[in-house]
Design goal:
The protein has 519 residues and is of the alpha/beta class. 29% of the residues lie in helices and 25% in strands.
C-alpha cells in the first residue's frame, strides 16, 4: 500500500490507523462496510483514477457528495492528491453549479448519484454509479479530461472551499487550508474526547462543514468508526444507534425534535450513547431536557461558524449552564463588542467576535467581504450575545436577516432575486417564519401585477423557484401584499413582516410546501 503524501497531513492518519488497527471499522453505510485497511486501499485506487483524469496538486474539484461510503473515499482521495475540494450542494440546480464553477475555477467535478439528474456545466465530470456490488465506482463522462490547473487568485494554500449564504444574497466561498482543517480535527478530538473506541453516527449532509469535516472527517482522523445514514429519518437513526452500538453523534435541533416527536411505539436500546452534540441552530432548554430523558445521554451544545468551526463546545461531564451554546475550545478567544467595535466587559451583550486556530483563510476572490468580517484578527459573527468569565458563550439573537432552516443558513436576497424574475411579481421580500421542528422556514411576501391570476399564483411561484433553487430554499408559503411596508429610507421592514407571520393562519394565499420539500 502506498504511503499518504507528506504534504497531506490529515490524510496520513488513515494510513497510521490502518497500520495499527487494520481490521477496525472505519466507515459503513447501508450497503458496504470498510475497515481502515480497506478504506486506504480504496483511497489508493481512486487516487490513481483521479490522476489519470488530470487531477493533481491544487486542482480545484467540485464535489457534490451523497452521504455514503464512496463520498468518504472520494474526499480522502482528493485530499491525498492535495487537490482543492470545492464542496457544493448535491441538490443544487444548473445555475447554482455554474456559479460554483465560475467562482472557484473548478475544472473537474465528482457528482454523487443523487445529484446526477442536473447538468454540471463547464467541467469534466465523474459520476457515482447508482448501483453495483461493493464500493461503487466513479464513472468519467467523456474521453479527454483536462489537466487541472490552480487559478492564480492568491489562495494557493486552499484545501477545502465551502459555500455559505451571506447577507449580500450571494453565497460566499469560504476557504480553509490544510492547517485549519487539521486544527478542526484536533479541536473535536479534544472537546468531544473522541477515541478509537467510539462509534459515531453520521447523519448530516456532506455539503456542510458540520457534516463532512467536523463530524465525519474528525471521526476518521481520530480512528473511530463512522456509521452513515444516507438520509436522516428518526426511526432509522434510533435503529442505527441500537444496532451498531453508536456512542456519539453530531445532530441539528431539527433532528432532535424529529426523534422526540416520532409517532412510533417501538422502544430502542440507546444505552451505548455517552453523549450527543447539537449545533447550527437554537434549541430550547425544555427540549434539551426532554431529549436527555429520552436518550439517557447528555445533549451537548456546540458553537461555531463555517468560517471558524469548533469555537465553543460544552464539556461532557460538566454541569450544563442554561442558555450556553458552548465553552471556548482550547486555543480560542471570544469577546462581545459594541457597534463601534469596542470590547465590552465580561457579561455585557454585544456582537460576538471570535479568533482561533480554525479561522478561515478568507472569502475566495472577495477582499471586501473578508475585510468586513475579519478585523484585526477577529471574525465578527453577526451573532448577538455575551461571554461569561469561564468562557461560556450565550446567544440572544442575530444582526442579520438570515433564515436558519434546520441548521441551514438561507439568504432571503437569493430567493428574492429568483422571485423577481417571475413575470407576475412586482416585488418580493422573504422572511423567516417560526417552525416547531425546523426552527424557521422561508415565507415570501409578494406584490403582484394587476393582471396576475391570484388563485393559481402560489403554485406557479413555487414551481418557478424550484427551477432555480435547491428544495430548502423554496419558500414554504407565499402571501400576497398590496405593498410591502418600508421605512422612510425605503428599506423593507422585515421585522414587521416577520411579526405578522408569527400567528398568521393558513389561507388560500398561504400555501404550505413542506411536504414537497420532503420528497
Amino acid at each position: 500500500m502506498d504511503r499518504a503524501p507528506t504534504h497531506a497531513l490529515s490524510v496520513a492518519c488513515l494510513w497510521r490507523h490502518a497500520a495499527e488497527r487494520p481490521d477496525a471499522l472505519a466507515v459503513r453505510d447501508g450497503r458496504v462496510s470498510l475497515s481502515y485497511q480497506a478504506l486506504c486501499a480504496e483511497v489508493d485506487r481512486l487516487v490513481g483514477q483521479l490522476k489519470n483524469c488530470g487531477i493533481g496538486q491544487q486542482s480545484r474539484v467540485l464535489f457534490l457528495p451523497d452521504v455514503c461510503v464512496e463520498s468518504i473515499v472520494a474526499y480522502w482521495a482528493l485530499r491525498a492528491i492535495d487537490a482543492v475540494v470545492v464542496v457544493g450542494d448535491p441538490g443544487s440546480r444548473i445555475h447554482e453549479r455554474a456559479q460554483y464553477v465560475r467562482r472557484t475555477g473548478a475544472t473537474h467535478a465528482l457528482v454523487g448519484y443523487r445529484a446526477a439528474d442536473t447538468v454540471t456545466p463547464s467541467v469534466f465530470c465523474l459520476r457515482l454509479a447508482s448501483d453495483g456490488v461493493g464500493v461503487r465506482r466513479w464513472e468519467p463522462e467523456g474521453s479527454e479530461p483536462p489537466v487541472g490547473v490552480a487559478p492564480s487568485d492568491g489562495m494557493e494554500s486552499a484545501a477545502v472551499i465551502l459555500f455559505s449564504s451571506g447577507t449580500t444574497g450571494q453565497p460566499k466561498a469560504i476557504v480553509h487550508t490544510a492547517t485549519t482543517v487539521e486544527a478542526l480535527h484536533r479541536t473535536l478530538l479534544a472537546t468531544w474526547q473522541l477515541s478509537p473506541a467510539d462509534r459515531v453516527l453520521g447523519a448530516l449532509p456532506f455539503h456542510t462543514i458540520y457534516g463532512l469535516l467536523f463530524s465525519a472527517g474528525s471521526t476518521l482522523y481520530g480512528g473511530a468508526g463512522l456509521v452513515l445514514l444516507e438520509r436522516f429519518k428518526p426511526r432509522d437513526a434510533l435503529l442505527a444507534i441500537e444496532t451498531h452500538q453508536v456512542t456519539t453523534a453530531a445532530l441539528v435541533p431539527a433532528m432532535v425534535l424529529m426523534m422526540l416527536n416520532l409517532d412510533d411505539d417501538a422502544v430502542f436500546d440507546l444505552s451505548s450513547l455517552r453523549a450527543l452534540y447539537t449545533a447550527s441552530a437554537p434549541i430550547s432548554e425544555h427540549d434539551i431536557a426532554r431529549f436527555q430523558a429520552f436518550s439517557g445521554a447528555p445533549l451537548i451544545a456546540n458553537y461555531g461558524l463555517t468560517e471558524i468551526p469548533g469555537a465553543a463546545v460544552e464539556r461532557a461531564g460538566a454541569s450544563h449552564h442554561a442558555g450556553s451554546v458552548g465553552q471556548l475550545s482550547p486555543g480560542f478567544q471570544a469577546v462581545a463588542r459594541d457597534d463601534s467595535g469596542e470590547t465590552l466587559a465580561t457579561g455585557e451583550t454585544g456582537e460576538i467576535t471570535l479568533r482561533g486556530p480554525t479561522m478561515m483563510a478568507g472569502y475566495l476572490n472577495d477582499e471586501i467581504q473578508t475585510a468586513q468580517r475579519v478585523r484585526d484578527g477577529w471574525i465578527y459573527t453577526q451573532d448577538i450575545g455575551h461571554v461569561d468569565a469561564e468562557g461560556r458563550v450565550f446567544l440572544s439573537g442575530r444582526t442579520s436577516d438570515m433564515i436558519i432552516r434546520g441548521g441551514l443558513n438561507i439568504s432571503p436576497l437569493e430567493i428574492e432575486a429568483v422571485l423577481s424574475t417571475h413575470g407576475a411579481v412586482v416585488e418580493a421580500a422573504v422572511v423567516g417564519k417560526p417552525d416547531p421542528v425546523l426552527g424557521q422556514i422561508a415565507v415570501a411576501c409578494v406584490v403582484l401585477t394587476p393582471s396576475a391570476n391570484r388563485s393559481t399564483i402560489s403554485a406557479g411561484l413555487a414551481a418557478h423557484c424550484r427551477q432555480s433553487l435547491s428544495a430548502p430554499k423554496v419558500p414554504a408559503a407565499f402571501h400576497l401584499f398590496d405593498a410591502l411596508p418600508r421605512n422612510a429610507g425605503g428599506k423593507v421592514l422585515r421585522k414587521q413582516l416577520e411579526q405578522q407571520f408569527e400567528d398568521l393562519p393558513a389561507n388560500d394565499q398561504l400555501v404550505d410546501q413542506r411536504q414537497a420539500h420532503a420528497k
